[in-house]
Structures are given as structure tokens and as C-alpha cells.
Design goal:
There is one protein chain. The chain is an alpha/beta fold. It is 36% helix and 18% strand. β1 and β2 (27-33) form a beta hairpin. The chain starts with 11 loop residues before the first strand and ends with a strand. A five-stranded mixed beta sheet has the order 3-2-1-4-5. It has a domain at 12-152: Nucleotidyltransferase, domain 5, CATH 3.30.420. The protein contains six helices and seven strands. α1 (51-64) crosses α4 (131-154).
Amino acid sequence: MLKQFYQEGVLEAGCDEAGRGCYAGPVFAAAVILPEGFFHPLLNDSKQVSPEDRQELRVFIENNALAYGVGMVDHEEIDRINILKASFKAMHLALDKLKTKPGLLLIDGNRFIKYKRTAHHCIVQGDATYASIAAASILAKTWRDEYMQHLHKEFPHYCWDSNKGYGTREHRAAIEKFGLCKYHRKSFNIDPSSRRVAEVLPL
């Protein structure tokens, strides 16, 4: 059972990102403020939810959240500032879009760059612990997947409609055959013969 709140009496926004470990495309992040009593039986960390159920949850969250925002940082900026900073920036952009301002941020993970003067707590595996972070994970994932579907139309041979830019066997095979395209993250050392990828941080 996901926890409703971290701290009673404070308006909380859950924040999470999607696409941090991908070879190609942007990183997305979402911020979600849920009302008291919010519940959906399928809500969980987006990685534990089927694509069909994620779409159902996206509609439910967007229709029932007190506020939500989604931010994106593209592959070019990821290459300029590195993926960790890009993930934090995407979260900040999502928070900028909230129509209601929270008093506390719940961040999935163990690090974050402070957002304005708003207090925050970093929570490892927060998307499997707190409902607001789980909801943010659903929005970030579904919005990013939809975006990758559009990029797939331009470069269908990378199969981004199914792998969404992650380093799957089919994606690595396509890179080995066709090389990298303009949407790949050039700051990542992408080895198509390996599942491992390391980022080259800018000096």
C-alpha cells in the first residue's frame, strides 16, 4: 500500500523522472500534487505497471490531481550539462508548471538540486513508497513514451516505438548497423556490443 503523505498538514508534490538511462531522446520529469484520499488500485512505480495500465493511470491522475506539471530536457542539453543535472532541471521545469505551489517536495532518488526556497526530501525507491511520487513516475513515463513514438517515425530502424531509446538488443543492433543519429546522446559512451553505457561528463 502506497503512503499518502510524508508529513501531515503540508501540501506535498511528488517528483520523478523518466529516460535517465536511455541512449537517445530527452529526459522527462513530472511533479504531482494529489488530493487527500486519492486512490487508484493500479497506482505503483511505473516500472511495475503495464503500458495499458499506465495509460489508464495517466488519464486518472491528470483528471484528479490537485495540480501536475511535466518538464523535458532534450538530448542536446543533456550532452551540454550531463544527465544528472538535466534530470534535476526537468524536475524544476515540471515544478514551474504547477498551478498550486507545494510546501514540500518528495523526490525519488538520493540527490536533488534545491528548488527555489521549497523544502524537499529525497527518498530512495520513493516511487514504490509514496502515491504522489508514483503518480509523477506514471506521468513522466507516459509523456516520454509518447514523445519517443514521434521520434520513431523519423528513425524507425532504431525501434524506438518499442524500446523508447533504452539500450535493448534491437536498439544496440541498429546502432551497430546504422550508427548514431542526431537524437542519440553523444556524451554517452555507447557500445552496441554491450549493455553497459558510461557518460562522459563535460569538463
